[in-house]
Folylpolyglutamate synthase (Erythroxylum novogranatense), 291 residues
Amino acid sequence: MEILGNTLGEIAGEKAGIFKHAVPAFAVPQLDEAMHVLEDKASKLEVPLKVAPPLDVNLLNGLKLGLEGEHQFVNAGLAVALSSTWLQKTGHLEVNYLEQNSSLPEQFIKGLTTSSLQGRAQIVPDHYINNRSDGDLVFYLDGAHSPESMDICAKWFSVAIADDNQQNQMNHLVQNNSGSPADLQQRNQIGGSTQKMQVYKRLQLTLELVKKEMEISKIQFRERIEPRKEKIPAQVSQVIEEELAKLQLLEASSSEFNVTQNYLDWSIALPWEDYSVPHFLEFPIIGLVLH
């Protein structure tokens, strides 16, 4: 965030830095704050900006995306728009597939269904452990780093673990060969659905606990300030109070909340008692900011 910015608008402005005059640009659906910035930057540079729709699953001819998770259909739609536009512009393709109103080329489908990215909705079975013991050891890996991405991760994991358990139950039932095929299928569906719901509820609870911890941090800042209140310069105290007031109005899941939280951490942790106010204000930039 130190490079891209503290708000969605600032981040969108930095991302729009790749826009070039009159060269087509593509984006996925965005929140209004970000989209307004992208549209403004595009207008100034006369850039034809288009929003790529999520990929229609029917265009994969019954195959699955190589990358797991429903959100990957958004990324896949952008990949199709970029690739087809470039290939059309360079004379290698007659049709642009941005609108997704016709079948995709075989090469597109192959790329979308065989692509992989380590650490993103990745399932890694430990074959060494599995070969040496009766149980299975499986790692479910994802780089979720925000409440929004954790929610997406939770949805993917609940589906992945349910599918895995469903397959294990089917194997177990087939081995036992008990009941009719219809009974086996029904029992398997019930078990898989129950397991999926249980896992999703646990992950949702974890997400709620994380959000609660972020809300509690608002109160903890005030408690940390009190013992050092007299040692913090008046100008700094004023800034801290303003940031605390802003923190109360922010959603704990927002990027601006995290930025404000980090700023308060830094402001409170500095050893203000080691510097006199006159010495502190000798720094021109700091004095300018605080005044």
Remarks:
- Strands lie at 25-27, 49-51, 122-125, 138-141.
- The longest strand covers residues 122-125.
